[in-house]
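seq:
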Amino acid sequence: MKKILIIGTDIFNYKNSGDKNFWLELFDLIDYKNINLEILSLSNFNGTSFYSQIKINHFCPVFLKTLKGDKIRSDFHKNYFYKSWAMLCLIPKLKNIIKKDSIDTIHIIDNYGPFMSFLKLFFPGIKIIGTAVTYNPTSNLYNLFLKWSFSKFDQIISFSDSFEKVLRKLGFRNVETIHWGIIPSKKIHTKKYNLIKILWTGYLQQTHEKDFVYSINIAKKIIYDNPLIEFDFIFKPEHFNSIFLKYSQKGITIKQSSGMNFKSELRNYNFLLCPILNLNSTLAPPLTWIECLNVGIPVITTPRKNIEEIIYHKFNGFIIKDNFEELVKFLNSDKKILNKNCNRFIKTNYNLNQSALNYQKLWEKN
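struct:
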């Protein structure tokens, strides 16, 4: 029986939002005949809970208790100083769990920065795996940061083929790609309204305020001559700022929504608008895109490296530069074939059942 300890932030015994829903759904598909999973979750409280048969140890470092309200959900997730500090605070808790439960493998599913490299010093006899979700460089030091963070890991799991190539260029050899995914939808949401509804969302890691403003400008240009096209801009509650409401106008709605409400609201939309202006960012691809494509919603985005991992122009989405007239024709085209293409693409390439089989093999062999 292999004993695997999963370490991540805000892993609860219920679905909320973000990539943790992927992991919970994946845990449901694992065969536990030869595997025993346990979780150490960096949370804003201390305690124990269970997700099915999996024990979740919730741990709150003392300094996190001083970050009130939204700061726990915002600054901590963005600031690697906090994350690295949290990793150091985890060491004593880790020692207790490992001593008690004889852990074989530690699998870290969030990036806590360079201090992760110290884990091998404290636990030399334990195999350490890290999941590399997305490559989103924001400074010239980003590659150095990555190299230091994963330098002592026995294995790195990338969510995308293109990120695996980046990691190999940085000198890592122990890299494997396991796509994240979703349970393929049996039902495609084909909207038959005269009004075309387009969604923009902040529910992905690569989206920044400049992407939001860029999308607002696209929306303004399109609705100026097309009154039967409307846009909804939806934010996570923790990222919503009332100043964004200044962009509201006829045909453009700005609002916030919880993760579960967001997923149920997808059936109201014909397209997802999601430009990403950071050309150095390597798509995971975003789980939000996978969720939209799964239910037949094509994605409108911008030209960028490795986009072909998830979007094919006029097959399951539209890659826009300044071709607004062509985009409007695309929006008004017959969408039944597009809807089917989106769903089929996810079944073939981002199927959670296959992801679960791959993680099963990974954990059993380690």
